[in-house]
Amino acid sequence: MTETIDQSPETARQADPFPVKGMDAVVFAVGNAKQAAHYYATAFGMKLVAYSGPENGSRETASYVLVSGSARFVLTSVIKPTTDRGRFLAEHVAEHGDGVIDLAIEVPDARAAYAYALEHGATGLEEPHEVKDDHGTVVLAAIATYGKTRHTLVERSGYDGPYLPGFVAANPIVEPPAKRTFQAIDHCVGNVELGKMDEWVGFYNKVMGFTNMKEFVGDDIATEYSALMSKVVADGTRKVKFPLNEPAIAKKKSQIDEYLEFYGGPGVQHIALATNDIVSTVRAMRAAGVQFLDTPDSYYDTLGEWVGETRVPIETLRELKILADRDEDGYLLQIFTKPVQDRPTVFFEMIERHGSMGFGKGNFKALFEAIEREQERRGNL
């Protein structure tokens, strides 16, 4: 039986046992939220839209909310921990460095989503509750996922404020670029321990009704020295996609092993950001100081033979070190940053899709060899 994928997003949501509207926010715990916000504003072209801190009643934490299209990042640091939440955030940064603590998902009914998740085996972290201000009401709940990551379930249809109650509108840190650097969150990738990938795939299947979208194992995702395995789960509308990686036995330490070692356990490895003009995106981000993984010229010598014609000429892809891949549905263009903090943990992907709903399978070898070169430079291969 073939999978039906041509239904409308609204129909798919209604049919899902755990309907979602999309990603609400990627929430980071960081050592210095003010400086991190400046980095994402200047280097990623994001716009600061909301703030919560001592000036408006948050004595324990400072949080900055930045957006680019529908993509939303929330950067939070602890000023002085006085509650369990503050102590958790402070300990998280001390143990893991800057990293993602919450992949928040917008849902049409947070109470129903939370109840369904718990009925199917989820660990509840926050029961559904309302938060209000002059802009309306938001219903929030939270469940646990791999490591210390959580999914906050956000029902915000009755709210028109800049982010959540407790936040105030904020002026941009710098003038945002005239053209957005990226438009949306494409997918968020989690790294888990050896032998745990299928367990977490099963979690998303059972607890959230997600289906298996892609699977990469064996030679799909290996080099001469290192290997990993990956499966992708997604909601029925394909708006929320979570690839899950685990290390595989190989000659040397894989990128997943390195991540788990330096992050101190499972967590979010990278966030893919969707752009409709990857050339402009990469040029702007490079000019702002973002470092991308390098790709040897030899990759481009035969690229046109198997990828075919793309919107961007091969020579431009070569110049900017952008990767390309094609499958039965179309093609995609992609590039990966180096880690954006001192620890070799969280990084980003920029992706431009033209029909393809894949993840660049044809580029895995080139990508992982590029990561291995960086691992070797760090002395971690």
From TrEMBL:
Residues 22-156, 184-338 form the VOC domain. GO terms for biological process: L-tyrosine catabolic process. Pfam families: Glyoxalase. It comes from the Bacteria. The keyword rRNA-binding does not apply. Keywords: Dioxygenase, Iron, Metal-binding, Oxidoreductase, Pyruvate, Repeat. SUPFAM superfamilies: Glyoxalase/Bleomycin resistance protein/Dihydroxybiphenyl dioxygenase. InterPro entries: 4OHPhenylPyrv_dOase (IPR005956), 4OHPhenylPyrv_dOase_C (IPR041735), 4OHPhenylPyrv_dOase_N (IPR041736), Glyas_Bleomycin-R_OHBP_Dase (IPR029068), Glyas_Fos-R_dOase_dom (IPR004360), VOC_core (IPR037523). Binds 1 Fe cation per subunit. One of its GO terms (molecular function) is 4-hydroxyphenylpyruvate dioxygenase activity. Belongs to the 4HPPD family. PANTHER family: 4-HYDROXYPHENYLPYRUVATE DIOXYGENASE (PTHR11959:SF1). This is 4-hydroxyphenylpyruvate dioxygenase. It comes from Streptomyces buecherae. The lineage of its organism: Bacteria, Bacillati, Actinomycetota, Actinomycetes, Kitasatosporales.
